[in-house]
Amino acid sequence: MTVLESVRARYSEGARERQEALCCPVDYDRDLLRLLPSEIIERDYGCGDPSRYVRPGDHVLDLGSGGGKICYMAAQLVGENGFVTGIDMNEDMLALARRHQAHMAAQLGGDRVRFLKACIQDLALDLEALEGWLVQHPVADLESMRALETQRARMRREAPLVASGSQDLVISNCVLNLVENEHRRQLIAEIFRVLRPGGRVAISDIVADRPVPGELQADPELWSGCISGAFHEHAFLEAFRTAGFAHVAYDKWQAEPWRVVGGIEFRSVTLTAVKPSSACCARDRGQAAIYLGPFAEVRDDLGNIYPRGERMAVSDRAVAALQAAGLQDGFVFVDGPDDFPDQPYRLPPRSARPAGEAGAAAMVSGTKAGGCC
Question: Which among 232, 204, 276 is positioned nearest to 45, based on CA atoms?
Answer without folding.
Answer: 204
